[in-house]
Amino acid sequence: MRIASGVEMLSLARGFMGSQGIIHPTLLWNEHDVILVDAGEPGHRQQIMDEMKQVGVEPRGLNRIILTHQDIDHIGGVPDIKNDTSQKIEILAHEADRPSIEGTQPLLKVKAIKDRLLSDDPKRKEVESLLANPPKTIVDVVVEDGEVLPFLGGMTVIHTPGHTPGHISLYLKQSKILITGDAMVVQGGKLQKPPAQFTPDMDTAARSIRKLAHYDIQTIICYHGGAIVDHANQALAELIQEL
Q1: What digits encode the pLDDT tens for the residues 71-97?
Q2: Which among 47, 69, 70, 182 is least buried, having the fewest CB atoms inside 10 angstroms?
Q3: Cβ-based burial of 168 (10 A; exposed 0-12, middle 13-18, buried ≥19)
Q4: What is the pTM of this model?
């Protein structure tokens, strides 16, 4: 879905550990950079490459991946994507999630994922094996709260912890687009807080959502649920009132 010039919300069919539904990495590009915000689940490389080609972006031009946080459905596609390109891809993430992304600490949500598996699930052993040795990648650039990345007219990093300690959202000032990762979700066309089962610190997550009200937002892109393209500021204000 084209959100603005050089901003495409991708739609990937889920499949990891039997998950259903669609997730939405964001593709950003101009004449200098091709940036992917989040990289899907393990096995999503081909879907991402195909969608890039469909919107006229050469996959081998991808030079940066910004990870909003450490969850496996956001970092899972990184190793395969890096192996498939001819140039170095720079990985950006927040310091607080860096150890889990790089594999020096366990992923935060391993227990929550295991708890969803049924004892007779035919994929249980496959999933448990993957969780024991999850995808990992070196973080080349650590980003900080309030930092403005010099891409696409300026991209502000907003530290939005709660869902994970190092969760970040991104604000594209030029187009007034907010990319939320999992700081918020869209359900039934309505903006919602992240699911409690996968949000260890909901109080902090709520404070993070309130923090987003400081930005003039025209469009909100949520990894789960898609985009709010009409009255985004109002949708955010209504959610904050419910927190």
Answers
A1: 999 999 999 999 877 679 999 999 999
A2: 47
A3: buried
A4: 0.94
